[in-house]
């Protein structure tokens, strides 16, 4: 028992933790020798053995930490010419506060950023900076010191949806004023980019759904814009696109193939399209609608080869027609109505004339036909027709008053051919007033035929009017 106590007290005295100043190799030898001797004698309990192993691991970590710090110090000595980075007067070699080396015991002990970092430092010693362009986002950027400033307006390119919303009002307004120069000025303000050709296709699509006068205006617009705001290639791409979209266009406009063929023929006659446009499609068309449009264009060009421009391909538009021609059309309209009695057909024919400023002629001719007719059928039918035109707003109050006033002024001459013109006129005016076709003032303005009577003999046989 005494022997075991002596052995137990002797072992800790030889532990490396109590050997101050002993070299590390000797500590390792003592620890290994003690572990081997303890294991041979069998004096280690499991708890003591685990505690001893934990001490050895902690000692190994401390030894590894001291070794790495010693190696980094040697490298810094070799690079700086052997000058130590620590204060020799400081205890245990404490690192100086002014030293810029790493204090974590890691790395090679070199200064951070090569000595070019830190507060108030503009880079490493001897570094020469090249000229750098000023950055507008720099807080110290001074715009006035950069010379003259040029401001440019940047217009973003329109996408598909914005293009349609912008172009449609321009074309619809053009159908009202017919000024191609204004359209050209508006196009210069837009950034159509690669979608410039779609302006022509949109304009033609709107014209297909409109009137003949709208198609005539669209053909003039393409002719005036060719070579200025639009190139021939842009117009060619527009018609190529429309030929491909004919199956969809024909759903809204059944006559789209024939109309598109007339557009192509007119554009080629106006030199807005290249003359070889039709030749590019020979033998390359699979769609029946596109083939019909190209055939229509080829026929028109072969018929009008001697004429440089197909001016009348859409007919003569509204106000450009001669007055005699318009009067003849109005008379045919009224005569057809008296035979058929179809008010809707008469309304459609009047709208196709596209002469709202000339509707007073229809009122004048209708009243004259009533005066020259025999029977009450024509009177009732004309009252019905004028009432429909008045209620739908097709004939305005100014046009209605002007037409009746013209009949009032010419009634003495009409009376020479129609002796009962005054009586018929009074009856017709009363019926129109009852149907609210004319105003009370216009009814009261109707002239009545004066009655001649003889006065007394004392007046000398004079006739009073």
List the helices and strands and how they pair.
Elements: H1 2-13, H2 24-41, H3 46-79, H4 160-177, H5 180-188, H6 197-208, H7 212-225, H8 232-244, H9 246-252, H10 256-269, H11 288-303, H12 323-340, H13 343-353, H14 359-372, H15 377-391, H16 397-417, H17 421-434, H18 440-444, E1 453-454, E2 463-464
Antiparallel strand pairs: 1-2
Helix pairs in contact: 4-6, 5-7, 6-7, 6-8, 10-11, 12-13, 12-14, 14-15, 14-16, 14-17
Q: Pairing-aware structural class of the strands and helices? A: mainly alpha
> Which whole number gives the mean pLDDT?
78
Residue share in β-strands: under 5%
Shape: elongated
- Overall strand count: 2
Q: What is the helix/strand order?
A: HHHHHHHHHHHHHHHHHHEE
- SS element count, helices: 18
Strand order of the largest sheet: 1-2
The value of Rg in angstroms is 54 Å
Low-confidence stretches: 1-30, 82-86
Largest beta sheet, briefly? 2 strands, antiparallel
Q: Alpha-carbon distance between the termini?
A: 174 Å
Instruction: Tell me the helix content.
Output: 55-70%
Summarize this entry quickly.
The chain is an all-alpha fold and 465 residues long. It is elongated. 57% of the residues lie in helices and 1% in strands.
């Amino acid at each position: 028992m005494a022997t075991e106590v002596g052995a137990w007290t002797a072992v800790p005295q030889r532990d490396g933790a109590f050997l101050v100043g002993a070299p590390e190799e000797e500590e390792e030898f003592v620890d290994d020798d003690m572990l081997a001797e303890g294991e041979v004698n069998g004096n280690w309990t499991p708890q003591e053995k685990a505690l001893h192993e934990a001490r050895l691991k902690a000692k190994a970590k401390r030894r590894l930490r001291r070794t790495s710090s010693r190696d980094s110090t040697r490298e810094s000595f070799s690079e700086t010419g052997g000058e130590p980075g620590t204060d020799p007067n400081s205890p245990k070699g404490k690192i100086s506060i002014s030293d810029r080396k790493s204090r974590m015991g890691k790395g090679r002990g070199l200064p951070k950023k090569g000595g070019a970092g830190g507060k108030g430092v503009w880079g490493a010693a001897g570094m020469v900076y090249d000229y750098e362009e000023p950055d507008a986002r720099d807080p110290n950027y001074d715009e006035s010191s950069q010379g003259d400033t040029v401001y440019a307006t940047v217009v973003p390119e329109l996408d598909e949806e914005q293009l349609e919303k912008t172009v449609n009002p321009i074309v619809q307004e053009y159908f009202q004023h017919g000024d191609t120069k204004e359209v050209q000025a508006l196009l210069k303000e837009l950034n159509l980019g690669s979608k410039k050709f779609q302006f022509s296709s949109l304009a033609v699509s709107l014209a297909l759904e409109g009137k003949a006068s709208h198609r005539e205006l669209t053909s003039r617009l393409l002719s005036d814009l060719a070579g200025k705001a639009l190139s021939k290639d842009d117009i060619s791409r527009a018609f190529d696109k429309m030929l491909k979209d004919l199956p969809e266009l024909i759903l809204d406009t059944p006559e789209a193939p024939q109309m598109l063929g007339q557009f192509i023929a007119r554009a080629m006659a106006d030199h807005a399209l290249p003359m070889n446009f039709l030749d590019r499609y020979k033998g390359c068309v699979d769609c029946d609608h596109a083939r019909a449009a190209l055939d229509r264009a080829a026929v028109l060009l072969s018929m009008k080869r001697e004429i440089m421009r197909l001016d009348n391909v859409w007919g003569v538009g509204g106000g450009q027609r001669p007055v005699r021609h318009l009067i003849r059309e109005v008379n045919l309209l009224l005569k057809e109505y008296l035979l058929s009695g179809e008010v809707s057909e008469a309304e459609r024919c009047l709208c196709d004339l596209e002469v709202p400023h000339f509707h007073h002629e229809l009122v004048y001719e209708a009243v004259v036909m009533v005066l020259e007719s025999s029977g009450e059928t024509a009177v009732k039918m004309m009252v019905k027709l004028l009432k429909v035109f008045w209620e739908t707003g097709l004939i305005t109050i100014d046009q209605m008053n002007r037409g009746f006033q013209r009949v009032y002024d010419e009634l003495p001459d009409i009376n020479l051919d129609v002796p009962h013109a005054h009586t018929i006129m009074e009856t017709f005016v009363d019926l129109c007033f009852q149907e609210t076709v004319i105003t009370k003032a216009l009814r009261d303005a109707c002239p009545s035929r004066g009655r001649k009577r003889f006065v007394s003999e004392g007046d000398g046989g004079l006739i009073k009017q």
